[in-house]
Amino acid sequence: MSSIEQTNPRGIKSLGARKFNRLLELSRRFNAESQRCARVRAYYAACILQGAALEGMLMAMAECHPEDVKQHLATLPSRDRPKGQLTKWTLNELVKIAIGLNWIPARRGKYRVHEIGDWLNYVRDARNLVHLGRHLRDYPNLRIRSKHFLECSKIVSAAISHLSHIVESGIVSEIDHREQS
Question: Taking the domains of the chain in order of start, what are their residue ranges?
Answer without folding.
Answer: 16-180
